[in-house]
Structure prediction request, 680 residues.
Amino acid sequence: MATTPTRVVIGVMGGGSADAAQEAKAYHLGRLIAKRGWVLLNGGRSAGIMEASARGAFEAGGLTVGVLPDADRRHLSPYIQIPILTGMGSARNYVNALSSDVVVACRGGAGTVSEVALALKHGRPVVLLDFDLSPVFPFYLDSGRLRWVATAEEAVIAIEAFLSAASPAA
Amino acid sequence: MATTPTRVVIGVMGGGSADAAQEAKAYHLGRLIAKRGWVLLNGGRSAGIMEASARGAFEAGGLTVGVLPDADRRHLSPYIQIPILTGMGSARNYVNALSSDVVVACRGGAGTVSEVALALKHGRPVVLLDFDLSPVFPFYLDSGRLRWVATAEEAVIAIEAFLSAASPAA
Amino acid sequence: MATTPTRVVIGVMGGGSADAAQEAKAYHLGRLIAKRGWVLLNGGRSAGIMEASARGAFEAGGLTVGVLPDADRRHLSPYIQIPILTGMGSARNYVNALSSDVVVACRGGAGTVSEVALALKHGRPVVLLDFDLSPVFPFYLDSGRLRWVATAEEAVIAIEAFLSAASPAA
Amino acid sequence: MATTPTRVVIGVMGGGSADAAQEAKAYHLGRLIAKRGWVLLNGGRSAGIMEASARGAFEAGGLTVGVLPDADRRHLSPYIQIPILTGMGSARNYVNALSSDVVVACRGGAGTVSEVALALKHGRPVVLLDFDLSPVFPFYLDSGRLRWVATAEEAVIAIEAFLSAASPAA
Prediction:
């Protein structure tokens, strides 16, 4: 076949509890991801950055994939179209990192930090959206695999730069 | 919101190596799944039942999700639109089982047997498509959670029966 | 160094609920494993074959490792010395299979079948102790990687045969 | 039974490549852990902090458990007595975190950061040994679940404080 139908998948990570300003950014980022035709992947739960980003993508007509820590759908966000039930707790953070062409990390706690760390370790580029982890990962900042941005619009520009730099056979 | 956008996900399991007749059944099953509007989920690799079922669903306009054992896309089927890279080897069989509303098992080896076993253990109904595991799981046959069928058309009828029996809040 | 200190690890799988005769066999097997100087590895919970085999090994002075599906110790058998908390549900069955030099499967349900299947798929020899899965895995019976025995003593003889056949560099 | 035989398990995390000074600290820490009668758990590979800490514990007569990312023993440290083969890549970092009563993190890269994050998220206390992650986890520093120390001796004092504070039923 001439072209692969494989979709671009953008992971959006962030806290299960977030303030209104952070949720607004995640919602807006979800909308922009959907409008670019990218699939939004997140942790799938009905809370915080997960809920906000899924709602943004869904309401803008995008496709949403939620990789849940749970073995059932009790905590599933209603804006997730494709739930992946891992039943593996935070081991699913590794799946989130690996499955994303680019990871965007909104402000979060230790779980979000683990996703950023796993993504960087396994070669996925990471965009920090108004979330300052620069003291932890100076190596990756220097190498250009980790970038900090302030807004959802800047995040999309950074994603596009990472995608166009990626080998198409990656 | 009035209705959840969550899609129905049908898992199709089966051997990485399969003969032409088995692959033809899996291809046909993939087509039927897509035509019903269900998402096809499988192991994602470019081999055997995985490749055949993904190609069938994709060519019929369906959405295909591949949950790979790998941490990269080297073995990804070109008919998979959404690759979930687990990097977890056969531990991904558990994810396949949990994420499927109904599992259809085509003929396979030990990996496929493990997926059937994990699906049954965790309450997912299983349709055996021309694959006889009845001596192993008499309990589940008796309870009606496991059914054997001969053709892809019969598999779809069995899937529909399981879906209509399922609690919508499951 | 002249020799590796790596211990031989024997996995004992089987149902979380078992009748008294099955538990007695598992207890006796645990004792024999400990007396041979092998480490006993099982699913770690305080129930059925897990509890019985751990108690047997512990009371005979052996070392017991429990690979739990849980993220905490609530269901931990008191006879497990080293709990490995996976927090991964039945995905831990894959860890059990891979970590065992030889797997002994006592009678069990779908979870035990999944462990036998995963062990065989990944090259670990399996001894079926009074548990008849022969119709499912004819290939492995023929290849000699799967053997059926009736008693704990016969299981130990089968384990020894597998261990002496194994490449020391495996 | 009067007392549980469950052993105290101390996780030692850190980079697969480390300089001589860091390896010397990890080796010394391994010795001290063994002399206290605690089990040493680490990532199991024959490299960096993993190799050094396992060698220290083993040479001091301790018990060593290695939770490997691999499905085979090719990269296994010769100082590991009980290899747990997860075959799950960095998803095993979650197992390391959960299975440790206390985690000690020596200097490392993104993988080590993910283990610290996962340990903190799931309630395991963490001792940072000459590894400064304080800007990332201010919440945990404030709550006392995260402590920074300069030497192996200080790490042992911090471990003892965490162990004596822990509920025995945890």
